């Protein structure tokens, strides 16, 4: 995850990209991202760094991730876009 933080920090529009383990459960983590615009966030979603992160993370997960996206006061829970194993998309 540290390699992912370093790689994504170099992407255009990335303000913050951090992972933090939960103190009461080291098997849980929070992922905080801040982007300059929707366009830069969308570009990140298609980047090699994001793809590599998804592939590496899959082997570590006991279950599919829960994700909540916050945009100002708005928040949403995206529906999975496909199979839970991102390697199946290759």
Short characterization:
The chain has 90 residues and is α+β, with helices and mostly antiparallel strands. It contains 3 helices and 4 strands, in the order αββααββ. The mean pLDDT is 80.
- Category from helices, strands and their pairing: alpha+beta
Helix-strand topology string: HEEHHEE
In terms of DSSP E residues, the strand content is 25-35%
Q: What Rg do the Cα atoms give?
A: 13 Å
Biggest sheet features: 2 strands, antiparallel
Mean of residue pLDDT values: 80
Biggest sheet strand line-up? 1-2
Count of individual beta strands: 4
Which ranges are low-confidence, i.e. pLDDT below 50, for 5 or more consecutive residues? Answer: none
CATH architecture grouping = 2-Layer Sandwich
Describe the global form: globular
CATH topology: Alpha-Beta Plaits
Q: Which CATH class is shown?
A: Alpha Beta
Structure characterization notes:
This protein has 90 residues and is an alpha+beta fold. It is built from 3 helices and 4 strands; from the N terminus they run αββααββ. The strands form 2 sheets. The chain has a two-stranded antiparallel ribbon with strand order 1-2. β3 and β4 form a beta hairpin. The longest helix has 11 residues, at 48-58. The protein starts with a helix and ends in a 14-residue tail after the last strand.
Strand and helix layout:
Blueprint: H1 2-9, E1 14-22, E2 25-35, H2 38-45, H3 48-58, E3 69-71, E4 74-76
Antiparallel strand pairs: 1-2, 3-4
């Amino acid at each position: 995850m540290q390699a992912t933080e370093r790689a994504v920090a170099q992407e255009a529009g990335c303000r913050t990209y951090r992972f933090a383990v939960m103190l009461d459960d080291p098997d849980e983590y929070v992922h905080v991202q801040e982007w300059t615009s929707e366009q830069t966030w969308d570009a990140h979603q298609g980047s090699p760094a994001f793809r590599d992160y998804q592939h590496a993370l899959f082997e570590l997960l006991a279950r599919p991730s829960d994700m909540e996206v916050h945009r100002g006061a708005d928040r949403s829970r995206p529906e999975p876009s496909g199979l839970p194993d991102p390697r199946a998309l290759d």
